[in-house]
């Protein structure tokens, strides 16, 4: 990407395939459009969730569209760990320090480990800082697991809310599920939550045991992968099924009326 000495560069939000942490990977060109691959390949300055996974994705892109520079010569900065733990805004993190290259006129890519950065992932503080610095922000087209799951759920898509991770404590988790379900049933607002893959089965069991029988529950696991599984039925029907296992596939859970 070109640099602009007259002002800041552009911040590109670069989506990543949804196969991070999975046993197998899909061809990157199967989930990222050509325009996204070309834009990403032209960037040499990055802010990312994890430098190692960022370099791995850049290698996958390079196999399809040659990169503008060797990966070893790229400027790659990581978001600090505090942002991962406390969130972009809750801890008062100021991301402007990561955007000196943007201020200098370089185009910068923002990258998370899977899906769209700043959506169910760190990065919103970087986007906010870019706006405050007067830079253009351009989201590139690619997979967003929350919207893919919602579209495939059969639940209402006119009003929905993403509540992230539920509490790990069993009683606190049950109460949170009840609170979200009450909101869903009262307002018709579909509720979307996620979990670390190795806790998927525990969350599914908690949802099936806690939600009311007529509440609809949808589970979308391994989205965009060959082994993707998307199931949507009321809780009464879920309870009649043998206890299944989602394994360690990334999953999105949605419930409502």
Automatic annotation (TrEMBL):
Stored InterPro entries: 4pyrrol_Mease (IPR000878), 4pyrrol_Methylase_sf (IPR035996), 4pyrrole_Mease_sub1 (IPR014777), 4pyrrole_Mease_sub2 (IPR014776), rRNA_ssu_MeTfrase_I (IPR008189)
S-adenosyl-L-methionine listed as a keyword: yes
Keyword set, alphabetical order: Cytoplasm, Methyltransferase, rRNA processing, S-adenosyl-L-methionine, Transferase
Residues annotated as domain Tetrapyrrole methylase: 54-231
UniProt KW Nuclease keyword: no
GO MF annotation: an example: methyltransferase activity
GO BP annotation list: methylation; rRNA processing
Protein name per Swiss-Prot or TrEMBL: Uroporphyrin-III methyltransferase
Organism whose genome encodes this protein: Pseudacidovorax intermedius
């Amino acid at each position: 990407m070109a640099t602009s000495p007259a002002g800041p560069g552009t911040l590109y939000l670069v989506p990543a395939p949804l196969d991070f942490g999975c046993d197998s990977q899909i061809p990157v060109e199967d989930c990222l459009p050509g325009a996204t691959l070309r834009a990403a390949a032209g960037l040499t300055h990055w802010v990312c969730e994890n430098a190692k996974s960022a370099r791995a994705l850049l290698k996958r892109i390079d196999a399809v569209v040659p990169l503008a520079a060797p990966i070893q010569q790229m400027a790659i900065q990581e978001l600090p760990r505090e942002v991962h733990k406390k969130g972009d805004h809750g801890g008062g993190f100021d991301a402007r320090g990561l955007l000196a290259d943007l201020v200098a006129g370089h185009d910068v890519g923002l990258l998370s480990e899977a899906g769209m950065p700043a959506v169910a992932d760190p990065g919103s503080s970087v986007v906010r800082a870019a706006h405050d610095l007067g830079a253009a922000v351009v989201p590139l087209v690619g997979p967003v697991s929350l919207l893919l799951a919602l579209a495939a759920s059969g639940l209402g898509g006119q009003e929905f809310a993403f509540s992230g991770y539920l509490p790990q404590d069993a009683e606190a988790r049950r109460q949170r599920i009840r609170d979200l379900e009450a909101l869903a049933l009262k307002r018709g607002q579909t509720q979307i939550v996620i979990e670390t893959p190795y806790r998927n089965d525990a969350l599914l069991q908690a949802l099936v045991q806690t939600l009311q029988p007529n509440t609809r529950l949808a589970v979308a696991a391994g989205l965009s992968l060959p082994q993707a599984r998307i199931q949507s039925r009321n809780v009464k029907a879920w309870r009649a099924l043998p206890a299944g296992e989602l394994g360690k596939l990334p999953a999105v859970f949605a419930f409502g009326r």
